[in-house]
Amino acid sequence: MAPKKLQVAAAGLGRMGHRHALNFLNRTPRAELVAAFSPDPAELQWGKQHLEPFGVTLYDNYDKMLEHQGLDAVVIGTATSVHAEEAIKAMEKNLHVLCEKPLSTSIEVCKEVVEAAKKRPHLKVMCGFSRRFDDSYRDAYNKVEQGLIGRPTIVRSQTCDKHDPSGFFVAYAAWSGGVFVDMSVHDIDLTLWFFGDDVVPKSISAHGVVAVQPGLKQHKDYDNAVGIVEFWNGKIAHYYCSRMMAHGQEDVTEIIGTEGKLSVNLNPQNSLVNYYHSGGITREVPAHYYGRFEMAFVREANEFTDACLDNTPLPMKLRNAVKAVEIGAWLQEALVTGKQIHFDETGKRIEKASL
Amino acid sequence: MAPKKLQVAAAGLGRMGHRHALNFLNRTPRAELVAAFSPDPAELQWGKQHLEPFGVTLYDNYDKMLEHQGLDAVVIGTATSVHAEEAIKAMEKNLHVLCEKPLSTSIEVCKEVVEAAKKRPHLKVMCGFSRRFDDSYRDAYNKVEQGLIGRPTIVRSQTCDKHDPSGFFVAYAAWSGGVFVDMSVHDIDLTLWFFGDDVVPKSISAHGVVAVQPGLKQHKDYDNAVGIVEFWNGKIAHYYCSRMMAHGQEDVTEIIGTEGKLSVNLNPQNSLVNYYHSGGITREVPAHYYGRFEMAFVREANEFTDACLDNTPLPMKLRNAVKAVEIGAWLQEALVTGKQIHFDETGKRIEKASL
Amino acid sequence: MAPKKLQVAAAGLGRMGHRHALNFLNRTPRAELVAAFSPDPAELQWGKQHLEPFGVTLYDNYDKMLEHQGLDAVVIGTATSVHAEEAIKAMEKNLHVLCEKPLSTSIEVCKEVVEAAKKRPHLKVMCGFSRRFDDSYRDAYNKVEQGLIGRPTIVRSQTCDKHDPSGFFVAYAAWSGGVFVDMSVHDIDLTLWFFGDDVVPKSISAHGVVAVQPGLKQHKDYDNAVGIVEFWNGKIAHYYCSRMMAHGQEDVTEIIGTEGKLSVNLNPQNSLVNYYHSGGITREVPAHYYGRFEMAFVREANEFTDACLDNTPLPMKLRNAVKAVEIGAWLQEALVTGKQIHFDETGKRIEKASL
Amino acid sequence: MAPKKLQVAAAGLGRMGHRHALNFLNRTPRAELVAAFSPDPAELQWGKQHLEPFGVTLYDNYDKMLEHQGLDAVVIGTATSVHAEEAIKAMEKNLHVLCEKPLSTSIEVCKEVVEAAKKRPHLKVMCGFSRRFDDSYRDAYNKVEQGLIGRPTIVRSQTCDKHDPSGFFVAYAAWSGGVFVDMSVHDIDLTLWFFGDDVVPKSISAHGVVAVQPGLKQHKDYDNAVGIVEFWNGKIAHYYCSRMMAHGQEDVTEIIGTEGKLSVNLNPQNSLVNYYHSGGITREVPAHYYGRFEMAFVREANEFTDACLDNTPLPMKLRNAVKAVEIGAWLQEALVTGKQIHFDETGKRIEKASL
């Protein structure tokens, strides 16, 4: 008898959602995509062409999709605003959940999801921070674990997007939570991975400018921002996020330890080709994050599937996803208010008056 | 109704064969692996564990496998000595064929396969030169096609393996056809791609040494060899092949044109990580060709499948596979005899006496 | 008649001083080293061997050296604490001055030097920020001037030293002014260069740790620190300084503009050699700043000489040297107090109460 | 008393000659440029402006310059055709000689110089192969000496010039000795350095094309050529020379040993700057060999001076300069005739009939 395959439904078939759907359809051998939902007729039309012929049932109603016979798990790639509600509903139907980041831009809502998951410890509930599934970050992490750099002390990490002059990110800023929540949350998650989940912030500073997207000002957001998070155990992370790169996606991380250092993607490249011409030697850079992290998303789908089928631990804790958003929100607050934020050794925020 | 999937059988489940089988099983959405054959009990045992549970029927007899109901295509990954016979048998059963390189180390036998394929133009018969399916080589090829480097004039290409002290390659040399046929055939195939299939060799020189595998001498083979092929239309390719690399696989190609140059993989890397330590900055290198070319094999399986299902042209001509082996064999001859080989403008070999 | 050569005296023959002396002796064709001073017998002994035979008169008294017949200029490479006094004395003797950075760790004292220089506009008085004389930084600056990156918006710059376990830097911290004044002052100077001398800070944040040199705590200094300076015209600089590198000196700068980016020394290297071995591919890194910037010091000596002899403008303003130290001192204050510092649009500091 | 400085005269003030003159004038502390000769009025005019004011006596007659009072050494940077004659004349006047490469394009003439030098063992006579004085090649050589790569087995070395469309090299080809003698002679010299001076060639093959300078055909020369030299002790060198590079000077060497590999300048760069723009990431490349090797020429002048003053051994043997030209001439012969050349184990050439 053929081994059981995980029966998966995909919620959302937009920018990220359709990629998750295709990855579970085609690149996750132990999973079977059986259902997909979108509230958007255009997305459903796409599904009719690319999913339905392969046996995927389409739904325009999320609740109905959850009733799909034999369903084991849901991958949520809808708009951030409905992530949490959909995740909780899925858990209530006893389904495993792989949710696109973030669970929510509201910490309170994030915590509700964590609470819901805690009550159902037999379910696998993961918020996908794709970089944890990237070969190069895994390689770096293993080298840290082997002690190659001594005690990790400084993380420098940046998420820098190619400039998109379409204005998309201006509209998006209205509900994205701000650049630190939307972009740097990945860098913060990596920090929690490399420094340990239990690190406690001591103080947070952030500064930003609006350089190429003046419309961002109306949403109190920035297109370039720099932030520092100091932790109580003698560690510091500093971040740079930007939507202004001319050359493409440039997501770089350095982990500096007492005895060595690791860099990840310091020299971004689109392929192994260099072009030599009268102006010098040029290499191209991926235009988007999916060009950089495509295989990480594939691995994420596969490792999530393994954990569900084999009842093994997920490679990352749901709680971290909340902590990363929380730190991102503090950075954003420090950025917008222009004021440092301080915490005591238990992580409790110290109000300014008490300083 | 679900779209038709290509029904594929895999012949051979050894080093390369089992990878083809898994790629058709798991990473080729439009294909279905339905059967697999191996004459080797250990390989069949592996198949029992990794293929049979997923609906793949196992055979210990190649001819019987060809009778598998509904079969469309065979991927041949057995020992080189049986490639040609198996390919011809498959064609006789009206099956498409994807055959590991080379078709044979004998040019005569290669040509028989080409003849057999010519008689069945409706069949897709491809000899897999994986580098043609590699993203970076595709990128380089597109840049050449766009005219970025003017007229391609010089190809420098090397296939260099990590030193394997096990002695495997000494035994292998008995029937591999020699290093130029076994290793440089990839570089020659790339040359035909970048220079055009119709290039005619003018003269061939080669020199080699036995540096780390003295046992090779008994098979008149070498562990390091350098060769030059001059073509009649003012183009030159030079090759280096080695089985002596300390650091890993290093397959580099440069295409030098009248107005620019392209390099592929000049700086090999295993991941995007650099490790900084008291001795400097180090990056690791893939240990084997599959570490470098895994995704090319996946793409090969998918493009072969597309061509079969859609009856579209294959991305490379079967005849080239013969031409690449033929040039490889001449290089090997020049290497072993220590004598240059010359050709007239029609490609006819000029015997020494007539020089 | 031979062209006039600049008659130069060197004050200080220690770590940096002896290099200045040798550069003026041997590598500055239009200058002639005629005198040298040191209060330290060991340094004088070195001078007896390396300078005296070539016609350089040695002094153990700075004032007497200033009386040396025909003297035109003094290069000051003594301890920081006497830089200012020696510079002012030299000006009083109508001598041009090239002074090692910083003029002083006290802003007040720095300003006195600037005042003294203002009164003698015919004298060339320069505080040597060597990176302004480095080929690569010059190249980057020219590209910015050509508009290649649009409007410079973000500077990221780091000065990172190889870990010196000798304890030297613990003692040194007692009077160095702290890491931001001692190390990052170079990065701040570069910022003033790339952003323009007239930029006005808006707010300053800094955080640091003591990771490998616990003795630094007694001097309220740090071995790793991160700081952000936000300027009023929509520009941001962020800095990292460290004395903990395992691999060597790593001074990196990125200048990010609205239409492109420049990096300087992102991949440090000691030579053009890569070493391929069983652990991968390794390149070495200069162990010290002089390994990275030696030729910049040579160029500095030459350009200073040219300005003196030809009465042409110096390549950098003395006032900037003060401004760089001032910003460094604010960063250090923010680091030590754990509090952000704010400024109004005229650059006047805003006290906390008024926020 | 000031230490004795080497009194040097410069012969030739053209392309290379004026650089030698300036290096001895300004960048060789232990030498003093006292005289210079050129037969060319324009070059003498340059000397009037740049040398005479600094005490250098100019001559339009080589023999007269040799009579210059107190002269110790001559640096010869005139046209190749007079190198040998001038070198021998200088030796006859008991002067040390640093001669630009090659001594001559005629092996016979080269040997006469060597003979003349043998008779005067107290004189230092060096033919300048600048790469032996380059920091990076020195670094590589030291690593080989330390045994880091085991037994050196393969050298790949290329000298590739930026395309000069002026036609200069067509005229130059009339008397340059051909590309292998003019360009690859550096790579051959490096081979002798890395493999040992006593290596005996076994066979030589070469192939070339005229791709961008059709005028070269009249001089039986090529703008791209590839050659292989096999040595009797199990070593192979292969060379590529080109005058067709779009991007600049690209002189690369790889030394491959039984246990590791070294590369020199695999990624040429003009400075440490990378420019990030909408087309990717670009670094510039030096346009000419002096951009790559300037400091090697300076070091050459200094080490030659040291050897003369201290009567210490020169860093390279004069005989090697002949051997390098000899191998270059054989490569050129193999290139032009299209025939391999063979040698017996004593290095005696084996004529074709005897094969």
Describe the 3D structure.
Chains A, B, C, D: Belongs to the Gfo/Idh/MocA family. Chains A, B, C, D: One of its GO terms (molecular function) is oxidoreductase activity. Chains A, B, C, D: Pfam families: GFO_IDH_MocA (PF01408), GFO_IDH_MocA_C3 (PF22725). Chains A, B, C, D: This is NAD(P)-binding protein. Chains A, B, C, D: Residues 7-126 form the Gfo/Idh/MocA-like oxidoreductase N-terminal domain. Four copies of one chain form a homotetramer. The first copy, chain A, is α/β, with parallel strands linked by helices. Chain A folds into two domains: 6-127, Rossmann fold (3-Layer(aba) Sandwich); 139-294 and 323-350, Dihydrodipicolinate Reductase, domain 2 (2-Layer Sandwich), CATH 3.30.360. Chain A is built from eleven helices and 16 strands. Chain A has helices at 17-26, 41-50, 62-66, 80-92, 107-118, 135-145, 168-172, 179-182, 185-195, 289-310, 318-337, and strands at residues 6-11, 31-37, 57-59, 73-76, 96-100, 125-128, 152-162, 201-209, 224-231, 235-245, 252-257, 261-264, 273-277, 280-283, 341-343, 349-350. In chain A, the strands form three sheets. The first copy, chain A, has an eight-stranded mixed sheet with strand order 12-11-7-10-9-8-15-16, with helices on one face. A six-stranded parallel sheet of chain A has the order 3-2-1-4-5-6, with helices on both faces. In chain A, strand 4, helix 4 and strand 5 (96-100) form a beta-alpha-beta unit. Chain A is globular and about 55 Å long. The mean pLDDT of chain A is 96. The interface between B and D is large, with 40 and 40 residues.
